[in-house]
Write a structure and sequence with these properties.
The complex is a heterodimer of chains A (340) and B (298).
Chain A: H1 3-31, H2 36-40, H3 43-46, H4 49-58, H5 65-77, H6 91-126, H7 131-145, H8 148-162, H9 186-192, H10 196-233, H11 236-243, H12 248-285, H13 291-300, H14 304-332, H15 334-339
Helix pairs in contact in A: 1-14, 6-7, 6-10, 6-12, 7-10, 8-10, 8-12, 9-10, 10-12, 11-12, 12-13, 12-14, 13-14
Chain B: H1 2-31, H2 33-55, H3 87-123, H4 125-139, H5 143-154, H6 158-185, H7 188-195, H8 200-208, H9 214-236, H10 248-254, H11 263-290, H12 292-297
Helix pairs in contact in B: 2-3, 2-11, 3-4, 3-6, 3-9, 3-11, 4-6, 5-6, 6-9, 9-10, 9-11, 10-11
The chains are: A mainly alpha (340), B mainly alpha (298).
């Protein structure tokens, strides 16, 4: 099978998943609350029969359930997530404003996950049952056991409040003018504007939240890298490579690691969902104006539509990232294309 | 007569075999240092949870405004919070809330996952297809975010938070169980049971379930920490435990903006961290002991 055929097949496979995702979202936002209207409209609006009627018609609440679902999906396809109670604006506009900050944080956390997690895993495998292995094991267990919101508070307290090594919550120092918005990611925008002062400030602000957010996935990535590298190192072709006198680092980097990284790619891809989930709490602690903080604000107003908006965007991103991982997978491992 | 003797002997042998296996597992557990440490930490915490009302120095809800925001000292080992409540007492008492939350949530979701996934794998067909699509849909959402939406829809409370976490956790169990059942279903002893006319439900309960619970047990142990983190996360953002309850996540949330009073958030978090690490160490140890593939590799 050609690569494009494989990709096409993967995209077709996404359709039933997207249907069940929207169905799930529909169930939570329409069937779970006893009265969805009561969740969306204020008490005063509830007493006004015209408003209630208008709302019922807009979301088709007077129609049979399957029609309601179709109307729901139709509205979603047109970017209509409803209006937020918390911000009094269309939810789509809110999401567009908050998504870049979350993406910036998640991608930075991903960088930590990859560039710390993989080397730790490699070290652990190479020094198996010796102290680097034990240290990595302890660190990764701590990584998956520590609640991110608590770790964030601890580090913020130590590194910002007590030691003054890093800046406090927020995305930029207050005395720096933010660069003109292009992507919404301040590090990228300041680079595009050539504003090095803003870039440095943004980078320093990004460091701690990204490290905290990445701590969980770092542990899983280093563990999977360790075990898959150990598997590969036991293979015959590694013995052959050694037997023909290749330098040890060539054997490890060129022959072993390349094959060992295939499961790691999957785990890194899947960890994207964990990172976006963790972003909800990390953003709250670091006053990071992203979707997580928006969701928490919405939660305090019991603004179900806004929370569902965030949930759906994250779920869609997750599904798309999984598709990209599958494609990447087929590119680095030719056997997959042949096999399917 | 002969029959009874044979069956008695057989039961005895089986009893011995079980005891032998338990003993072997215990020996393996004793050799596995991480698992032992985990078990020890958990024993201490279970003891604290059981005896908390008798060992705590202060009433966890009792406010004493004269003593508010005191740093750790001789009378208040972990200091006091904004309302002058003793944090040490609240942290110990919180074990009675957070640990049962984790255990109950995981028990419910693993049982649900085992039965749904088990039946789904055993009977296959349309039912299997529907169950797996539902599981896929749930798994497409990051767990905390979906739990947040469900809790918000049901109304914030600790019970609704637990229900929401069960909803997000069961599909992984269903998947693992389904995989196990599919593998076991085609084995010879199941075929033999069919051949001698054992009814389907009996085969499922007596032969399929007992032979497939091992990975579920490991996953469940590792998941308790996970469930505690999600529940605390929900409380942290105000969707779980309601204020006076000494739940660890809610307590951390109280200390969020108080950098100078570091003790308010630090101690409940430390308690939670040790409990979770206990479950993770024990779970890792159980996996090493119960999963023969890993045992050989290690």
């Amino acid at each position: 099978m050609r690569l494009w055929q494989y990709i096409l097949r993967r995209i077709v496979f996404m359709v039933p998943l997207l249907i069940s995702v929207t169905l799930m979202a529909f169930i939570v936002s329409h069937l779970v609350p006893a009265d969805p209207l009561g969740m969306v409209l204020s008490e005063r609006a509830m007493n006004n029969p015209e408003i209630v009627q208008a709302y019922r018609e807009r979301w088709g609440l007077d129609k049979p359930l399957h029609m309601q679902y179709l109307i729901y999906v139709w509205n979603l396809l047109h970017g209509d997530f409803g209006d937020s109670i918390a911000t009094q604006r269309p939810i789509l506009r809110d999401l567009a404003q908050f998504l870049p900050a979350t993406l910036e944080l998640t991608l930075a956390a991903m960088v930590f996950t990859i560039f710390l997690g993989i080397p730790f895993g490699v070290l652990a495998a190479l020094y198996r049952d010796r102290w680097p292995d034990h240290l990595t094991r302890v660190l990764s267990t701590i990584g998956v056991s520590v609640p991110v919101f608590w770790l964030g508070l601890l580090l913020l307290n130590a590194l910002y409040f007590h030691l003054r090594l890093l800046p406090g919550p927020g995305r930029l120092d207050p005395y720096i003018t933010p660069p003109p918005t292009r992507t919404g990611m301040i590090t990228v925008d300041s680079l595009l504007a050539g504003d090095w002062r803003a870039f440095w400030s943004a980078l320093r602000h990004l460091f701690l939240p990204a490290l905290v957010l990445g701590s969980y996935t770092m542990g899983t990535v280093s563990r999977i890298t360790r075990s898959s590298l150990l598997d590969v190192l036991a293979q015959d072709y590694i013995r052959t490579a050694r037997a023909k006198g290749l330098a040890e680092w060539t054997v490890i980097l060129r022959h072993a690691l390349r094959n060992a990284l295939i499961p790691t790619v999957t785990v890194v891809g899947l960890s994207f969902g964990d990172l976006m989930s963790g972003a909800v709490l990390t953003e709250t602690i670091f006053s990071w104006p992203g979707m997580g903080r928006y969701a928490v604000l919405a939660a305090s107003y019991l603004d179900l539509q806004a929370i569902m908006g965030v949930t759906l965007v994250i779920a869609f991103t997750y599904v798309v990232v999984n598709l990209l991982v599958d494609i990447l997978y087929a590119i680095i491992d030719p056997r997959i294309q042949v096999g399917t | 007569m002969t029959n009874t003797v044979t069956s008695t002997v057989w039961t005895l042998q089986r009893g011995e075999a079980t005891r032998g296996r338990v003993r072997a597992a215990w020996r393996a557990l004793r050799r596995n240092r991480a698992a032992l440490i985990g078990a020890f930490i958990l024993l201490v915490w279970f003891f604290i949870a059981l005896t908390a009302p008798y060992i705590i120095p202060y009433d966890p809800d009792q406010q004493n405004l004269a003593d508010r925001l005191q740093p750790p000292n001789i009378t208040h080992w972990f200091g006091t919070d904004e309302l002058g409540r003793d944090i040490f007492s609240r942290v110990l008492y919180g074990a009675r809330i957070s640990i049962p939350i984790g255990l109950i949530v995981v028990a419910l979701s693993s049982l649900m996952g085992m039965f749904v996934g088990g039946i789904s794998g055993y009977i296959g067909g349309l039912f299997d297809e529907i169950v797996m699509r539902v599981a896929d849909a749930v798994l497409a959402f990051p767990s905390l975010v979906l739990a947040m939406a469900i809790t918000a829809a049901l109304g914030p409370s600790i019970n609704n938070a637990m229900l929401a976490i069960v909803v997000v956790l069961w599909p992984t169990y269903a998947r693992v169980m389904r995989g196990q059942v599919l593998a076991i279903k085609s084995m010879e002893f199941i075929e033999a049971a069919h051949a001698i006319g054992v009814p389907n439900w009996r085969i499922f309960l007596r032969h399929v379930l007992p032979n497939s619970y091992t990975p579920i047990l490991v996953k469940a142990t590792l998941d308790v920490g996970n469930a505690i983190i999600i529940a605390a996360g929900l409380s942290f953002i105000g969707l779980g435990a309601v204020p006076p309850t000494p739940e660890w996540g809610a307590m951390i949330s109280m200390g969020r903006l108080k950098f100078a009073q570091w003790w308010i958030a630090t101690f409940p978090g430390l308690a939670m961290f040790t409990v979770i690490i206990g479950f993770n160490f024990l779970g890792d140890g159980l996996r090493d002991i119960l999963d023969p593939r890993i045992r050989r590799r290690a």
